[in-house]
Amino acid sequence: MTAPHKTDVHKAVIPAAGLGTRFLPATKAIPKEMLPVVDKPAIQYVVEEAIRAGCDNILTITGRNKSAMENHFDRHWELEQALERKGDELRLDRVRKSANLGNVHFIRQGEPLGLGHAVLCARPHVGDEPFAVLLGDDLIDETEDLLERMIAARGTYGGSVVALMEVPEDQVQLYGCADVEPIEGERDLVRVKSLVEKPEPGEAPSNLAIIGRYVLDPAIFDALERTEPGRGGEIQLTDAMLKLTDPGVPGGGVTGVIFRGNRYDTGDRLDYLKAVVRLAARHRDFGDTFRDWVREWAASDEAAGKAEHRLMEH
Question: The Nucleotidyl transferase domain covers which part of the protein (predicted)?
């Protein structure tokens, strides 16, 4: 039987230093992490997920022009006082929630040297503890327990844990990809033998793509120190994790948790819009009304493009 490992994971790292170029010009002055997904910025969904899993000490790695994120998780006394005077308790609670979520810290990456470098920047904060990494492009539905399952897998098998999701074979080259083998007696848990960052078409070892959730052993920091820049001249987290797939090295062994739940990809414009629609359709305040409107609109001439054609004819 596998000996139990330390299961307490209280620290999380959220890399958020990217420029958000795919959303320009919207992200010229606003961090992409602050783009609204229905009625909350994307970064708040990620912080709330970390806290639900017990990671209430959160370090966000930012870059220039990202101060809006720090402001969002701080108190806004003038706004709160204005809402108090109006007696608007509902909106007051919503405003205060973002400032009371947990212990959220911010540091700057300094140079845009890749995800691996961003994680390495967290070393002074994390110390010699296992920690979670959550990427803001992947929003995991609040009804899912992916991060909790990953922390539990770390407790059973030690080492590091990565979230995997089956994707169509023609999309594998857009992701990091895992070569895996089953673990006897486990469902949706696999042993990761190798990792490849964005494999060439036809060379992927599987259709299991790495999505943006990790639980990492602190040994990852030494591995990152030894990792040379890879694709795009950046230090890739995948390359460093590859060094830890050998369970014989200190802190080694990588387990994969296969995720089959609801994930919202906000990494590009079209998927961002899909995420907004899907989450709006489930919103507790107006989801039913919104779904009715979508059905009505989808059956309309406007949705079919007929209205546009009539305008063009005139």
Answer: 11-277
